[in-house]
């Protein structure tokens, strides 16, 4: 958030260009990638502006799966005697070809049963290709995303006591095209894209006033704020209100949602050692459900600092509550071209919990952070696969050649307990920097809400939540040389065996009931984990140039996270040049 100025040692123009080669087990010759970024800035401490433009392209590391991206951003700041005016804007344009998944395609082709009477040379392959085409497994659909954000902030210091601030912002996006999939089970990665297919624009206004008083012993800051946001969403929808509605009547629905909030917050400080923050937010959300939702969200935090040079110890704790209103009026097309059933009884998601921690600093050379958290999420919403009502059960429809009649419905699971530890350590010494992190998470279902028809039961681990994540970063910088190595790993989570579920989906004679409710537990799979290794090597050259060589995913792990059908770019080796003017 800091605005750079055009000081003598700060370049006004920077250029970075790099090319990359991406290894792939699913493309014969791998893929190429390029990225060019131009950054410029101008001004001084009172007036400054900066901006950047990035153009990037990634080749097809899966068949016909290339992508392009264009991004631009800019910021400006003007400082007066007692006022500050800041503005920012960001634009992003992406175009991605969503190709057929090679892993899924091969698994489903193998699962297609061909009668013995038709098993002749080449005939069997043609039949499998024909049936695969009916499932649209080889269809390449382009996804286009445009996103724009702009904001203006004004700050007024009327005197030593009062500070007033006003913020206005606009966020817009348009998403055309959702990923093709033959998997009858929703996933956290692709369901969000399908739910967002369409466009939206949100306008936000916020005003706040703060009064700070006190002495060297006590310091008090009272902040009062109010905000209002208006959201307009237009989404491609396949919601079924009743069985008489045509099974695939996709329409574009437009809804308006409004959120208003009033916040009161008090910050207290004693001798720059003991700090307390307490506040309450009164929120009203309309347009998410038939009746407006009004909630009170409290927050309380405290910390105590012990300073004994060169060591500093901080003890801290906090409690907070958050809410996310349900979205029952707009949804997207779903996996396996399924329908999305409306759920008028959907309740909001709430989360409340505490955290306690210790921070220990040894000057700037070392730091240790330990945090314990205990949270409960009530009314967690899950996309549940269900058998859809139909006036003609068992008959095929477009996108459902087997007449499976499966659909999705957003349902409240119940209460989820999230407990765990987070540790982070930093060590500096001369040209070396070493950082490490480790987290333990136990996320389990506490109870099930009446009306939930999914497979989760009390005591189950939540799906797609790793029990352990860890990371290590080592950096060296000396005499124009720089080297960074970063290792990260997520391990031990429960997810779906999507290959097996997809094979059952396309196999005639397999009942659709085996893909809903408690039967889905047979497709649970424990994923051991994936390790990622990245590195960067830089060398400063005369004339303001820097040569950079980097490697991402050096272990060339392309599958296994977050499930067994997702493919990510393999080992990516890049060579680039940075220039400063």
Give a count of the beta strands, DSSP E runs of length 2 or more: 26
Given as residue ranges, the uncertain stretches (5+ residues, pLDDT < 50) are 1-8, 237-250, 328-337, 391-396
Task: Return Rg in Å.
Answer: 27 Å
The proportion of strand residues reads over 45%
Main structural class: mainly beta
Mean pLDDT: 85
**Helix content class:** under 10%
Ends apart, CA distance between termini: 23 Å
Helix and strand run: EEEEEHHEEHEEEEEEEEEEEEEEEEHEEE
| Tally of individual helices | 4
Task: Specify the overall morphology.
Answer: globular
Biggest pleated sheet: 22 strands, antiparallel, barrel
Question: Can you walk through the features of this model?
Answer:
- The chain has 581 residues and is mostly beta strands.
- It has four helices and 26 strands.
- The protein has a 22-stranded antiparallel barrel. The protein has a four-stranded mixed β-sheet with strand order 10-15-19-18, with no helix packed on it.
Secondary structure layout:
Blueprint: E1 13-22, E2 31-43, E3 47-58, E4 67-79, E5 83-98, H1 102-111, H2 123-134, E6 141-157, E7 162-176, H3 188-196, E8 198-214, E9 218-237, E10 239-240, E11 251-270, E12 274-286, E13 293-308, E14 311-324, E15 339-341, E16 349-362, E17 366-378, E18 381-387, E19 406-412, E20 414-429, E21 432-448, E22 468-478, E23 481-496, H4 498-506, E24 524-541, E25 545-552, E26 572-580
Parallel strand pairs: 10-15, 15-19
Antiparallel strand pairs: 1-2, 1-26, 2-3, 3-4, 4-5, 5-6, 6-7, 7-8, 8-9, 9-11, 11-12, 12-13, 13-14, 14-16, 16-17, 17-20, 18-19, 20-21, 21-22, 22-23, 23-24, 24-25, 25-26
């Amino acid at each position: 958030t800091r605005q750079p100025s055009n000081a003598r040692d700060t370049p006004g123009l920077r250029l970075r260009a790099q090319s990359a080669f991406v290894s792939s087990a699913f493309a014969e010759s791998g893929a190429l990638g390029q990225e060019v970024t131009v950054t410029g800035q101008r001004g001084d401490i009172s007036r400054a502006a900066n901006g950047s433009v990035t153009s990037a392209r990634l080749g097809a590391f899966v068949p016909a799966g290339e992508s392009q991206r264009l991004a631009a951003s800019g910021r400006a700041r003007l400082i007066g005697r007692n006022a500050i005016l800041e503005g920012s804007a960001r634009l992003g344009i992406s175009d991605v070809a969503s190709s057929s998944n090679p892993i899924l395609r091969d698994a489903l082709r193998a699962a297609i049963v061909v009668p013995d009477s038709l098993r002749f040379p080449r005939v069997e392959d043609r039949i499998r290709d024909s049936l695969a085409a009916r499932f649209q497994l080889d269809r390449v659909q382009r996804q286009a995303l445009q996103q724009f954000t702009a904001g203006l902030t004004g700050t007024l210091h009327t005197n030593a006591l009062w500070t007033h601030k006003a913020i206005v912002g606009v966020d817009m996006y348009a998403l055309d095209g959702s990923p093709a999939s033959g998997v009858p089970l929703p996933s956290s990665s692709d369901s969000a894209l399908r739910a967002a297919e369409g466009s939206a624009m949100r306008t936000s206004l916020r005003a706040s006033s703060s009064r700070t008083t006190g002495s060297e012993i006590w310091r008090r800051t009272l902040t009062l704020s109010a905000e209002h946001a208006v959201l307009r969403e237009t989404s491609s929808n396949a919601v079924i209100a009743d069985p008489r509605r045509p099974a695939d009547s996709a329409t574009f629905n437009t809804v308006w949602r409004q959120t208003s909030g009033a916040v009161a917050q008090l910050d207290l400080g004693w001798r720059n050692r003991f700090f307390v923050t307490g506040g309450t937010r009164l929120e009203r959300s309309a347009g998410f459900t038939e009746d407006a939702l009004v909630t009170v969200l409290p927050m309380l935090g405290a910390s105590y600092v012990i300073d004994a040079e060169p060591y500093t110890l901080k003890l801290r704790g906090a409690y907070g509550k958050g809410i996310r209103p349900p979205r029952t009026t707009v949804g997207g097309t779903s996996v396996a071209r399924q329908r999305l059933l409306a759920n008028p009884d959907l309740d909001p998601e709430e989360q409340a919990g505490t955290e306690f921690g210790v921070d220990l600093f040894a000057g700037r050379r070392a730091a240790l952070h330990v945090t314990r958290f205990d949270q409960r999420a009530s009314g967690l919403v899950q996309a549940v696969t269900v058998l859809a009502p139909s006036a003609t059960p068992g008959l095929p429809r477009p996108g459902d050649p087997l007449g499976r009649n499966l659909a999705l419905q957003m349902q409240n699971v119940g209460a989820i307990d999230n407990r765990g530890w987070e540790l982070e350590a930093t060590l500096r010494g001369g040209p070396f920097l070493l950082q490490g992190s480790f987290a333990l998470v136990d996320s389990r279902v506490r109870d099930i809400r009446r009306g939930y028809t999914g497979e989760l039961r009390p005591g189950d681990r939540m799906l797609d939540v790793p029990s352990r994540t860890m990371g290590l970063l080592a950096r060296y910088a000396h005499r124009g040389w720089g080297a960074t190595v970063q290792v990260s790993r997520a391990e031990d989570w429960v997810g779906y065996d999507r290959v097996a579920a997809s094979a059952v989906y396309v196999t005639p004679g397999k009942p659709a009931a085996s893909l809903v409710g408690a039967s889905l537990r047979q497709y649970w799979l424990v994923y051991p984990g994936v390790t990622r290794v990245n590195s960067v090597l830089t060398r400063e050259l005369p004339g303001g140039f820097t040569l950079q060589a980097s490697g991402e995913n050096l272990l060339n792990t392309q599958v296994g996270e977050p499930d067994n059908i997702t493919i990510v770019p393999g080992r990516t080796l890049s060579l680039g040049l940075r220039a400063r003017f």
